[in-house]
Protein: UbiD family decarboxylase
Amino acid sequence: TKDPEFGQNLDFHRAMQISKDKMSTRIIKGRDFYKFLERSGEVDVAFCLGNTPNVLVAAATSVNTGLDELEIANALTSMRLTKATSVDLLIPANCEIVLEGRVCMNERDTEGPFIDLTETYDTVRQEPVFEVKKITHRKDPIWQALLPGALEHKVLMGMPREPTIFKKVTEAGVECIDVNINPGGSSWLHAIVKINKKHEDDGRKAILAAFEGHKSCKHVFVVDQDINIY
Structure:
């Protein structure tokens, strides 16, 4: 989607079909898409399905508002963009299927029940509705679905938090060597931080910084540089 001030934004959203051309769409309060929708009331969107790994990783990464995640995707692997056919948005040219339309803040419907990241049922909510206006696709397209709670979901949730933890630990003055958001916490709730301890309080600093780098984390384990965190 796109905002007049901050430009284009790329991220993941869960959607549940409720009629021939409408879906209730999970939009988390406080995220960029929610901010754009709150400012405008309704926004044009393009749901892109069947993307390359660089696009998936970029879309899963949390960056400052105003930074287009497609730039990150292009930095990972050079890619070609094209214009959507009915909305003013740039999209990956080689994605398989594109659903174009609008999301309205004031039109809501039931979203769920779905399995969440921890493989337990998420709360059923009243979420904004996405109205599909046009569908485009490649010849013989592949419908790629990220199954809730499955491996792709876990990797794309947890892995992008590893560099944010690494950055915060380093900024705290601790020599951070590596970070692993491990499967023991559903690839989201547990972090293992490997450091080169030089001062007595480096471990404490690393723990506090790790929680700052990943605010949903519940357990942080700090280990010395001789430990294999994988």
The chain is about 25% helix and 30% strand. The chain has two domains: 2-156, 160-223. The helical segments are 32-40, 53-60, 69-76, 151-158, 161-171, 202-213. Residues 202-213 form the longest helix (12 residues).
